[in-house]
């Protein structure tokens, strides 16, 4: 199978948003819905696509890599967590029931190369595409001077946790998911880092 890896372009923004929705288990869609308004008729996916079409910011196509055959089949979004974009209001649990983003803010690892989302379309999974995307992202992080990489994963997804562990990530912190009808998972989310 011939898979090509390339930097994303603004034209990939809808594919990126679709894949981010998959990898975030609904969290991203809830965030995008906050920007939907009735008169415009925009959907959450429309808003997400606009986010990723931007040239600036963490949630930009410029921070994404695309895996493609004759069409895009996978994507990774990664960027550094620095003093500039670190969540200043992150705190340990317990959390208010209306702050669904609280555990994710708490689990940010300052001064790390953050893999915010990685996803491959179902028919192309288990073919090494996700690993290659992660390898390329980690390589970019090292080139930018980051010795630690981080990601957030759902603890109940044991196969995914084991996969990340096989790539050198270790669980360093956990927090409970704030339950919400739009979030497709429950239990805990964990911070995984390459630094011990």
Automatic annotation (TrEMBL):
One annotated GO molecular function: acyltransferase activity, transferring groups other than amino-acyl groups
Residue span(s) of domain N-acetyltransferase: 3-196
Top-level taxon in the UniProt lineage: Bacteria
UniProt keyword annotations, A-Z: Acyltransferase, Transferase
Keyword Transferase attributed: yes
PANTHER family in the cross-refs: ACETYLTRANSFERASE
Name the record gives this protein: N-acetyltransferase domain-containing protein
Source organism: Candidatus Thiodiazotropha endoloripes
């Amino acid at each position: 199978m011939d898979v090509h890896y390339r930097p994303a372009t603004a034209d990939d923004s809808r594919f990126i948003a679709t894949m981010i929705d998959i990898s975030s288990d609904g969290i991203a869609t809830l965030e995008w819905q906050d920007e939907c308004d009735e008169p415009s008729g925009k959907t959450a996916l429309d808003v997400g696509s606009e986010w990723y079409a931007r040239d600036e910011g963490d949630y930009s196509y410029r921070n994404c890599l695309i895996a493609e055959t004759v069409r895009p089949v996978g994507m990774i979004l990664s960027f550094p967590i620095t003093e500039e974009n670190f969540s200043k209001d992150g705190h340990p649990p317990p959390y208010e029931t209306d702050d669904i983003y609280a555990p994710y803010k708490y689990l940010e690892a300052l001064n790390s190369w953050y893999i915010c989302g990685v996803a491959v379309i179902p028919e192309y999974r288990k073919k090494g595409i996700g690993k290659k995307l992660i390898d390329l992202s980690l390589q970019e992080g090292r080139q930018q001077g980051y010795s630690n990489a981080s990601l957030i994963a759902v603890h109940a997804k044991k196969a995914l946790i084991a996969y990340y562990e096989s790539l050198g990530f270790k669980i360093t912190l956990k927090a409970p998911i704030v339950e919400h009808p739009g979030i497709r998972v429950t239990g805990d989310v964990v911070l995984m880092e390459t630094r011990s």
